[in-house]
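Please fill in the sequence for the structure shown.

STRUCTURE ENCODING:
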């Protein structure tokens, strides 16, 4: 059990002394003892260390015989202090008074001389009293002052004396009660708990309000109903049916109460207890399992004390939260319990209290709190250790939060060893245990080299073999001996004692309140000692137990990953550099994830990023092993996400389990692309000894992987794309032709050089892709593409069909592209190859040599239709260019037309000023070069179709003198119609311009139709007297105004301001004028 207090015998009355100890009072180093003879003895307490014996049989702490040095020294003795036994002592320190109860009266004595100052005659037949001192603010002045109060229970009333700043008030207050007072306990400076036979009441001494303490409805049991204590009635009340005490000589248990805090108090009568708040409301707590009614109760921070009857001779120390019995101290015949004030809060921490029989006085010295917690941990009382840490103030324990966390981790380890894996791992998560510490509990299959289980088993085997050698056992005897079955975890200490009437070291259950199982005992694993003194070998973690434990570990590690991701980026760098440090512990905010050994030395040189990254690698690698062992289906999603798994571990595991697809995904996620591509190459070519999966045969899987690589890895792409291209050119070339950002951003120079080393046709296809589809403006690519087309057409190995296809592509490219070197391409085009005549014409056209181009169409290709189409295309392009130049030069500015509405006449005049391509064609028809005949039919057809596009002056000059005029009738008719059309079009445009101008003037003057004739310059606004300017917020009055197009009215001077923006006319201007 716990050794929270060490008993120290202070003083024992001499055998010849016939007096008995009746009361105690301790303050400072003074001890006042009231005797049955009415005498008062004053002792000085000397500090000394007293060893104690721990009774191993029942766990009781027994004081040893006092040493020769005196624990107390008698300073003085007042023989005539009282006429009868001194029943109670207290002090009012601020008034320098000693209060005593003797012979039914309360008396006041001088605290220095112990002489009687006054006997309070109103207290005749007093039963008890209580003293309290508090700092209370004056309700009128709100100034804090020290107020001490003395409450005396006299029959059925309470008498109150008050000292205000060391001065006794003349008014003695009196509060009547329903029954005789048996006990008084101050709860706060304004409330007192009164114990009576009729039950407990809480009295407010200022308002005189009396609140009875009732039992909650949920506390009613059949036994209580049989005793007359019905639910909802007074707690500890003696009813008319409760005649059980009459058979005991009319003995009624004394009501006891002790204050636990400002808002909690314990009430006790007989073996019944109830916890209430300051208002008398019952709290949800179970009863204290007392087998006998206590003689006295008290509270010594942070423990609840219960003094058993003298015949029992025990002092019980309990946790006030769990009510667990922590220590039993043997104090023979003890009947007095005195806890010096203050018995609550930090002021009492570490101080002891007094226990006395009629002859002996003991002082209970509090042990250091860290030592108490260590004892509880050593005995596997983890819940009690956590509860005790929660009760203690933060200043009493170094790193209280860290200590609580450590205790919870130890409890979780204990649960894990009992094979309670899920509760253990949940507790690890709640305690924020370092992942390294949790992982070490698992075997090598999960924890790898970090596993401590193998080390323990190895050490145990070595110790067993050493013991066998020491005992002289023959070699090999251990093999012949039958193997002991693995020990199964036992339930708990309490489970072994089922059927017994009493638990060791605690009270047995009463008939009224069954004992509740200790929560700590449920988490204690017992080990039966072997003959050699060592514990039995732990059950090996394997098989289904290992899978169950591993599944529980997966959830813990998943939570740890989420915590790590808050502080560590996917690139392995801290999100906040330097990390945020805790102001109290000096650790980073993620310190709970790191091994605690880091904080045992100087942390100024610790690389927090490297340490957290190491933990992240450990967590992810262990989680992968756990998934592969217990939940294989979840391993794939893990390494498809960003992770810190160790590549060697994952590769070996996935390869051995034939999960090649997952292995490729993992290598890709870890950016180990070379290893992944080497593996895919072996599978694709069939070089691996094992039978590869169906999806990895051939180049498709390799090509798909290469498409995912970023453009920066162009060298790796070119290295591993060769064999897919050689195996399947279309599939391999898709790496460069794919519609993706990666393919488009590849280094095109390197790709072209690579493809050229394999095949010219592949280079041509790639150039077509980047020039036609990606519209790459690089002139070198355009020039190379044109030259490759020419080489392909001129090569003798190409079929006629392919040559025609290449010719079509070349002509389309030469027509659309403007980036190639026209002069160089023209020189490369042979003059004797009929397939390239049209290409020469296209290049000449691009160079601006329209006449030479038309000559090729007319004489070499003999295609008047293509020549006409060529002229039509060039003419329309010239017309568009002329229109654009007219707009830029503002040709129409000389007229009253809108600049955008150029007349057809203007365009015609501008067009005739330049070269006319139709005139060139007509000249070729009528003035054929040597060796060619004139083409009259084609010329007349040209005049008939496009006569309007041919200028009259140059056209008539070309006509021979022997040509009849009637042959030109269609030409003249077309020219006249064209001129008339241009004139009429110009007139129509002028009329439309006039209409548009009239509409604009109307809108400007009268507004639109929706304005009903009140818009534009005819717009009217109404300004009322209360209207104000939205800019300066001043009324308009007789000021000049402006009306905005939106209809908003502002002052004339506020036209440049914005709504809500005050100008110099408004308040800001006034403010500036004022200074």
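FILLED IN BY: designer on duty
SEQUENCE:
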């Amino acid at each position: 059990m716990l050794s929270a207090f060490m008993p120290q015998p202070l003083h024992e009355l001499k055998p010849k002394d016939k007096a008995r100890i009746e009361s105690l009072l301790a303050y400072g180093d003074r001890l006042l003892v009231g005797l049955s003879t009415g005498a008062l003895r004053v002792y000085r307490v000397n500090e000394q260390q007293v060893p104690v014996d721990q009774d191993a049989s029942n766990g009781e702490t027994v004081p040893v015989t006092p040493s020769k040095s005196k624990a107390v020294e008698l300073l003085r003795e007042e023989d005539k202090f009282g006429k009868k036994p001194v029943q109670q002592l207290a002090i009012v320190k601020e008034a320098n008074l000693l209060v005593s109860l003797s012979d039914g009266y309360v008396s006041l004595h001088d605290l220095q001389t112990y002489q009687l100052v006054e006997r309070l005659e109103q207290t005749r037949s007093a039963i008890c009293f209580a003293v309290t001192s508090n700092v209370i603010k004056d309700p009128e002045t709100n100034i804090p002052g020290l107020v001490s109060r003395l409450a005396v229970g006299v029959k059925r009333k309470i008498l109150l004396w008050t000292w205000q700043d060391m001065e006794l008030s003349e008014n003695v207050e009196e509060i009547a009660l329903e029954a005789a007072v048996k006990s008084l306990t101050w709860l706060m400076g304004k409330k007192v708990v009164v114990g009576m036979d009729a039950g407990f009441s809480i009295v407010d001494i200022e308002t005189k309000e009396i609140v009875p303490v009732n039992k909650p409805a949920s506390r009613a049991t059949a036994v209580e109903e049989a005793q007359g204590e019905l639910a909802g009635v007074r707690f500890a009340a003696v009813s008319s049916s409760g005649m059980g005490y009459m058979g005991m000589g009319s003995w009624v248990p004394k009501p006891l109460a002790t204050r636990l805090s400002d808002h909690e108090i314990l009430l006790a009568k007989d073996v019944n207890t109830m916890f209430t708040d300051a208002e008398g409301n019952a709290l949800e707590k179970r009863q204290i399992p007392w087998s006998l009614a206590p003689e006295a109760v008290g509270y010594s921070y942070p423990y609840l004390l219960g003094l058993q009857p003298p015949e029992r001779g025990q002092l019980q120390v309990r946790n006030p939260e769990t009510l667990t019995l922590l220590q039993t101290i043997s104090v023979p015949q003890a009947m007095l319990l005195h806890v010096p004030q203050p018995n609550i809060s930090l002021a009492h921490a570490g101080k002891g209290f007094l226990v006395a029989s009629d002859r002996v006085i003991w002082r209970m010295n509090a042990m250091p709190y860290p030592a108490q917690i260590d004892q509880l941990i050593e005995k596997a009382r983890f819940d009690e250790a956590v509860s005790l840490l929660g009760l203690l103030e933060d200043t009493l324990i170094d790193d209280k939060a860290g200590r609580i966390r450590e205790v919870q981790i130890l409890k979780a380890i204990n649960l894990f060893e009992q094979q309670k894996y899920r509760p253990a791992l949940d507790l690890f998560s709640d305690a924020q245990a370092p992942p390294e510490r949790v992982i070490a509990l698992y075997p090598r299959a999960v924890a790898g080299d970090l596993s401590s289980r193998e080390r323990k088993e190895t050490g145990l085997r070595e110790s067993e073999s050493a013991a066998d050698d020491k005992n002289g056992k023959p070699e090999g005897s251990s093999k012949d001996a039958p193997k002991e079955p693995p020990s199964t975890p036992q339930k708990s200490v309490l489970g072994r004692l089922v059927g017994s009437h009493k638990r060791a070291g605690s009270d047995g259950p009463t008939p009224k309140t069954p004992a509740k199982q200790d929560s700590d005992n449920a988490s204690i694993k017992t080990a039966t000692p072997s003959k050699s003194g060592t514990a039995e070998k732990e059950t090996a973690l394997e098989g289904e137990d290992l899978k169950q434990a591993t599944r529980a570990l997966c959830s813990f590690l998943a939570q740890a990953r989420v915590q790590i991701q808050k502080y560590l980026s996917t690139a392995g760098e801290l999100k906040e550099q330097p990390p945020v440090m805790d102001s109290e512990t000096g650790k980073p905010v993620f310190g709970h994830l790191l091994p605690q050994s880091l904080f045992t030395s100087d942390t100024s040189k610790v690389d927090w990023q490297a340490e957290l990254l190491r933990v992240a690698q450990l967590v992810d690698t262990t989680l992968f092993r756990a998934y592969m062992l217990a939940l294989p289906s979840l391993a794939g999603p893990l390494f498809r996400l960003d992770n810190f798994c160790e590549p060697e571990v994952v590769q070996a595991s996935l390869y051995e389990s034939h999960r090649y697809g997952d292995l490729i995904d993992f290598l890709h996620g870890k950016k180990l692309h070379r290893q992944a591509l080497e593996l895919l190459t072996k599978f694709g070519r069939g070089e691996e000894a094992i039978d590869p999966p169906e999806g990895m045969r051939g180049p498709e899987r390799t090509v798909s992987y290469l498409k995912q690589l970023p453009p920066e890895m162009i060298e790796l792409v070119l290295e591993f794309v060769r064999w897919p291209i050689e195996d399947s050119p279309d599939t391999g070339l898709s790496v460069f032709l794919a519609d993706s950002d990666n393919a488009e951003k590849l280094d095109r120079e390197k790709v072209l050089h690579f493809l050229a080393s394999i095949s010219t046709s592949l280079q041509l296809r790639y150039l077509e892709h980047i020039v036609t589809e990606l519209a790459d403006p690089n002139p070198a690519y355009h020039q190379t593409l044109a030259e490759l087309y020419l080489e392909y057409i001129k090569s003798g190995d190409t079929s006629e069909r392919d040559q025609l296809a290449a010719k079509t592509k070349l002509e389309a490219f030469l027509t659309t592209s403007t980036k190639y070197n026209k002069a160089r391409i023209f020189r490369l085009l042979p003059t004797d190859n009929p397939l390239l005549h049209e290409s020469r014409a296209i290049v000449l056209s691009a160079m601006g040599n329209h006449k030479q181009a038309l000559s090729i169409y007319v004489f070499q290709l003999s295609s008047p239709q293509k020549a006409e189409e060529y002229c039509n295309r060039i003419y329309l392009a010239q017309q568009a260019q002329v229109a654009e130049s007219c707009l830029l030069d503002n040709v129409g500015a000389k007229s009253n037309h809108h600049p955008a509405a150029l007349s057809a006449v203007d365009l015609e005049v501008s067009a005739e000023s330049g070269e006319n391509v139709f005139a060139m064609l007509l000249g070729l028809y009528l003035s054929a070069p040597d060796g060619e005949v004139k083409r009259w039919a084609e010329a007349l057809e040209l005049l008939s179709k496009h006569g309007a596009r041919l200028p009259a002056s140059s056209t008539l000059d070309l006509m021979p003198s022997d040509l009849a005029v009637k042959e030109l009738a269609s030409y003249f008719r077309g020219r006249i119609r064209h001129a008339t059309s241009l004139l009429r079009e110009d007139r129509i445009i002028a009329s439309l311009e006039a209409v548009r101008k009239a509409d604009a003037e109307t809108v400007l003057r009268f507004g639109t139709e929706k304005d009903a004739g009140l818009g534009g310059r005819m717009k009217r606004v109404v300004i009322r007297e209360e209207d104000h300017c939205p800019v300066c917020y001043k009324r308009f009055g007789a000021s000049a105004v402006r009306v905005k197009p939106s209809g908003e009215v502002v002052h004339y001077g506020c036209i440049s301001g914005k709504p809500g923006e005050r100008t110099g006319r408004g308040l800001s201007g006034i403010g500036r004028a004022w200074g």
